Amino acid sequence: MTHKIALKKNSPSITCTQSMTAHQDWVTSVIPLKSGDILSSAIDGSLKRWNPQLSQCQQTLHTQSQGVTCITELPSGHILSGGTDHTLKKWDLKNQTCQLIFTGHQDTITNIIKLSSGLILSSANDQKIKKWDPNTGKCLKTLKPHQGIVKCIIEHQSGLLISGTDEPALHAWNLENGQIITTFKGHQDSINCLLELPNGNILSGSTDNSIKEWDIQTGKCIQTFNGHTGAIKSLIQIDPQHLLSAGTDQKVKLWSLESGTCLNTYHAHQGWVTCLNKSTQNQLISGSADLTLKQWKIQYPTPL
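Above: the chain's sequence. Below: its structure in token form.
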């Protein structure tokens, strides 16, 4: 099945090239693997590895968790998953074995990221952020509790940690001493996703249906992207000028980063669009509460 978006002049065109029924419950995360395959996770407790060229599931791994909420690939090729059972698990996909279980959180894991140092950070509904050694599973540090649930975290190019919560607020942390340096306020509801732009500014997507761009130095909001009619669940920059967002209104929107205007809206899924990621330079993949994954192709106008 192919759906074409009629975009404004000089904007990329985006085509849905394939829809795949993926899981038995809603898809929570989708990431490209170094092998070229795609890995998805879901609330059904499974991980699935996909061949994007064949649009086929090559492997299913049952994690024995009630639900898998987030995943990342380690430099070693192992997969780290976070779940509703309050743990992180390190997987060998080739042998389909769990090699380590990281315990310490007291509620559902919301996000896992790799730090430039090689260590791991996780956030959870217990209002805590934890730093881990990926080789031993040992918790090295716990950042002091937030006033709300930590929904998302990213490492900024400056070395700061940026977190988003349901207070709602963003916080910039010094990872060495665990202290909050700056607090960003402006959203009216939970902050669900974060994205760093090449210039160092931060984008945040919220349950208040808006996206905001922040100056990391001042903590001030530079501009607000309005247009979604549901919570923003995922943000991805596809080129220097364009942003894609996905939300609970079942839509994917294309934005101009310069002006903050919506260039096009695509009715992408029959349920919440929960995750969106680049699989290759000009390919995207989205996951949804409608149990499907969709592949997308990005095309640019031919210069005159």
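The domain at 27-144 is CATH 2.130.10.10 (Methylamine Dehydrogenase; Chain H).
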